[in-house]
Amino acid sequence: MKKWLWLIPVYLIALVAYIPAAVVHWFPMPAGIYIEQVSGTLWQGRVGYAVINQTAFQNVSWSLSPSQLITGQLGFSLTVPSKGNPLAAQASGSASVNSIKLTNLRATGELAPLMQLVNFNMPLKTEGQWRIALENYTLDDLSGAHACTSLEGNAAGSNIRVLVNHRWEQLGDFPLNLGCAQSGAVALSMAGENSLGLNFEGTVSPNSIRVNGTVQPNPRTPEGLAKMLSYLGRPDNQGRYRFSI
After folding, report:
1. Whole-angstrom Cα distance, residue 114 to residue 181?
2. What pLDDT tens digit does each residue of the chain (245 aa) get?
3. CA distance readout (Å), 235 to 122, 135, 217, 240, 242
4. Could you tell me the end-to-end alpha-carbon distance of the chain, in angstroms, rounded to an integer?
5. Which of 34, 42, 191, 240 is 20–30 Å from 76 (CA)?
6. Are residues 188 and 240 in the same domain?
7. Last residue of some domain: 52, 67, 89?
8. Any coiled-coil ranges, and where (predicted)?
9. Interatomic CA distance for residues 16 and 14, integer angstroms
């Protein structure tokens, strides 16, 4: 009889491995999230259609790796294809009861859908593309008080243009450095080497966004936009307009 006991954990693992992914419908979804057309298993599945903050996604797939469970970690990978989606993304990492870690994240997309997804309104109608690349991200506090424990990465807006007086003005690219502040907020910094002379540092936490910086018109700044900068107040002796959020 005892020689068959080893089959019990094997059976239980197989049972869990083949649980249909559709069981997610048994659990309540957070506000603003809706999913349907779920297929596959818990370990490898696909969501055919999902809505997050009124933004629709299609054919999002995932896979889970139980090989790290002995250390209390569950490996995972997530793919959002570009076709039919406001962004394309690939991410891999691991998670536990108390933490989450991303070892790789690549995402790209159009700016307007991203602003809708994060519920942020630009002061002027803005179009362009964005990308983000994270090499290392960890969050050891899942209480919602912090946004990161460590973070290494960068982001950029490219081919940015804004609508000024019924005319599209080309602004070009805006590279951004990402890190993690001691407070547990995501740290943002941008040098002023762009068409607006935009230079700032800031933090993003679950409850607030803080940014302090300057805008300094230069020969690459569109004339119509340079005139609008006067609404920020008087420039300093170096021609910089200061702002804060």
Report:
1. 24
2. 444 444 445 444 554 555 566 656 566 667 778 888 888 887 888 999 998 878 889 999 989 887 666 677 888 999 999 998 989 999 999 988 889 999 999 999 999 888 877 777 788 889 999 999 998 999 998 888 899 999 999 999 999 999 988 899 999 999 999 999 999 999 999 998 999 999 999 999 888 889 999 999 999 999 888 888 877 788 889 989 998 88
3. 22, 38, 10, 5, 7
4. 70
5. 34
6. yes
7. 89
8. none
9. 5
Tokens 């700016």 locate to: 111
Indicate the number of domains in the chain. Answer: 2
Instruction: Give me the domain span that covers residue 131.
Output: 98-245
66, two tokens: 């139980």
Cα 159 to Cα 115, 168, 201, distances in angstroms: 16, 12, 22
* Residue 229, token pair as written in the block: 């900068």
Asked which of 28, 54, 89 is the last residue of a domain, the reply is 89
Per the listing, tokens 């049972």 go with: 15
